[in-house]
């Protein structure tokens, strides 16, 4: 049978990572894991429980016993994030979480907690994970690493369109501000900042339709799998 590999996809917000990951997972019949959903779920928990982001003891207590898992929704065919058995897939995409997630994801104890679980999920191969540190920290030995980019204005426009469907009160300025802030924190934090791994292949999606980007990355992936 065909060899199963690990595919790591990194890049800034709204550059097209999860679209590529979902497309490839479908074509290759691989498991897709959205690592950002875990940081978002942890953030939701911290906000609900008023965890002080500077208090290590509170943070460790909050993480102790926190149960994060991805479950397949049979109706939609999409994987959804569950936190302590509650479906939080919708809530974690709200701006309230997006506003704080990069701060929470910069906390070393939070990263250690998430990375450990992510590495376990990859042990059986046949997995595609997207995030910020997948090719550098989570799976440094991944057989295929993609580093996805897109022009800033295009990223803002794409994310705005997505969020506007859920909340017509959202403004493009709000989205632009959130993306700019997260870009900065994610690229400049001390632990596992966003970096292009030296062996990652760069994919600029600025001028690609989802169909065009799929053709491009599928060819690359099949090349790695068949060689
Ligand atoms: O979908 P989007 O690109 O907006 O973000 P996401 O993938 O849902 O990730 C949300 C946030 O989680 C990012 O802005 C990072 O702060 C953090 N994150 C991270 O630090 N490391 C990862 N592997 C994935 C996400
Ligand atoms: O995962 P990430 O935050 O990097 O981005 P995404 O969720 O894959 O893409 C953000 C939005 O851009 C989605 O609504 C995609 O449908 C859209 N997109 C696009 O219009 N053209 C592409 N080539 C890739 C994504």
From TrEMBL:
Keyword Cytoplasm in record: yes
Broad class of the protein's primary localization: cytoplasm
Protein name per the record: Cytidylate kinase
Enzyme Commission number: 2.7.4.25
Compartment(s) where it occurs, according to its Swiss-Prot or TrEMBL record: Cytoplasm
Binding-site list for ATP: 11-19
Any matching Pfam family: Cytidylate_kin
InterPro entries the record matches: Cytidylate_kin, Cytidylate_kinase_dom, P-loop_NTPase
Family assignment from sequence similarity: Belongs to the cytidylate kinase family. Type 1 subfamily.
GO molecular function terms noted in the UniProt entry: kinase activity
UniProt keyword list: ATP-binding, Cytoplasm, Kinase, Nucleotide-binding, Transferase
The reaction(s) this protein catalyses: dCMP + ATP = dCDP + ADP; CMP + ATP = CDP + ADP
Keyword Transferase: yes
Occurrences of domain Cytidylate kinase (ranges): 7-222
């Amino acid at each position: 049978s065909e060899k199963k590999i690990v595919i790591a996809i990194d890049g800034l917000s709204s550059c097209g990572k999860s679209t590529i990951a979902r497309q490839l997972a479908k074509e290759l019949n691989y498991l897709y894991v959205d690592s950002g959903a875990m940081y978002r779920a942890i953030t939701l928990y911290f906000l609900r429980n008023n965890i002080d982001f500077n208090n290590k003891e509170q943070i460790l207590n909050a993480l102790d016993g926190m149960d994060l898992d991805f479950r397949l929704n049979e109706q939609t065919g999409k994987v959804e994030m569950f936190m302590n058995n509650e479906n939080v897939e919708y809530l974690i995409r709200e701006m309230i979480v997006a506003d704080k997630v990069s701060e929470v994801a910069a906390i070393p104890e939070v990263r250690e907690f998430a990375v450990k679980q992510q590495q376990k999920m990859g042990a059986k191969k046949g997995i595609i994970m997207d995030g910020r540190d997948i090719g550098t920290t989570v799976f440094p030995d991944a057989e295929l690493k993609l580093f996805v980019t897109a022009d800033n204005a295009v990223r803002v426009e794409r994310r705005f369109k997505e969020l506007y469907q859920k909340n017509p009160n959202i403004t493009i300025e709000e989205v632009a501000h959130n993306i700019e802030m997260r870009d900065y924190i994610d690229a400049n934090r001390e632990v596992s900042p966003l970096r292009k791994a030296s062996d990652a292949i760069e994919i600029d999606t600025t001028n690609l339709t989802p169909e065009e980007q799929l053709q491009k990355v599928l060819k690359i992936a099949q090349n790695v799998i068949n060689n």
